[in-house]
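Case study 2.
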Amino acid sequence: MSNGFIAWVDRRGPALVALAIAAASLAYLADAVAASTRLHNLILLVPLVGFVVVMAIGIVIAHVWRGPDARSDADDDLPEGTVAISPLSVAAMMAALLVYAFTAPTLGFDLASALFIAFCLYVQGERRWWFIALFSVLFSVAITWSLVNIAGAAVPTLLI
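Prediction:
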C-alpha cells in the first residue's frame, strides 16, 4: 500500500466507518426479516437500524460539507479537568467489553452492566466516585428493566 492510499483513507475515515456500520446494520436487518417477519421480532430492530442509517447519512453529509481535509482542534481546546482519550484507554475499554460479554451470563446482566459502565466512565476521565456509582447503577437498572419488562428478553439478572 502506498502512503497516498493510507492518507486518502485517513481523511475519509469517519465517512467510511459510518457507511460500513450502516451497511452491516442493513444486512443484519435483511437477515432478520428473512428469518421472521413477525412484529415482536422486529419491533426494536427496525427503528434502531433506521436510526443508525440516518446517523450514518448525517455523518457522511457533514464530512462532505466540511471537506475531508478539515481538521479538528478538539485536543487543543479541551475544557479544564478534561482528560484526552489515549489509544491505551480505548484498548482497555475494548478488553472490558470482552470481559463484560463473557461475564454477563454468570454475574447477571445488571451487575455486569453496572461494572462495565463504571469502568468505562473511569477510563474516559470521570473521577467523581459518586457520579460513577450513581450513573452506572441507574443506567444499568433502567436498561435491564427495559430489556426484561418491555422487550421480554430472557437475560440473566442478579438483582432485578
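The radius of gyration is 19 Å.
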